[in-house]
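Hi V.,

You were right to ask for the full record rather than a summary. Here it is.
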Amino acid sequence: MILTDTVEAIAEELFTAEAKIQEIDTFIHRYPELDAALAYKVQERLIEMKCERQKTHVRGHKLGLTSVAKQKMMGVHEPLYGVLLNDMELDQQEPISLQPFIHAKIEPEIAFVLERDIKGPISVPEVLAATAYVIPAFEIIDSRYRNFKFTLPDVIADNASSSRFILGDRIRKTDGLDLKVTGTVFKKNGQVIATGTGASVMGHPARAVAWMVNKLAARDQYVKAGEVVLSGALTEAFRIEENDVFSVGFDGLGVVQAIFTT
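Predicted structure:
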């Protein structure tokens, strides 16, 4: 009963913080029982609240902390995952207002769209075989925590800092495509700010997807046909300012852009 109360209280505070566009303090010191396992229960409850109150539904999943550098920075040894909702998706042709965000950042990703259900245990080749296509994407992350600072359980509870995502308009089947060496050039206002390759995501983006699916299996969950999976950032995330224009080009995959207003 105590843990159920903890889950409900944390999920409610996170929901309210996002709705009111307000920073909050982390929970780990207020709820010492909050570990990664309990944090995923909070995340699950938070998603239930959003689906109920915002009249939305699950669109897919996302991965975070997929690079060794980010894991070392956080003091962890594995990634984390969150949930994408239908009302998180934005159109790359439409200007995006910064009003709904607390302190948003943007990062380039390779998105997988599944043609059939995938359940763990699963391997990288099986993930690729179950993929309808891949597509260039941006994820906009926006932690609800003060100054974008948090512990691992805190960020898991906060749905892995999920906020919005943008998909490109060019799809590509994985046949003949080596995502490990797929390069990307990330630009802000026409200037190159970062480059990367698919190998920066756990050595191969599909390995990140397989890792997540295998973790979901431990909770009797799986990725459904038609869902989108953001496999992890190919570069560091960059803070978004008013009137910024971001674009990212992927070898063999095309380009996706994000245009921001006030």
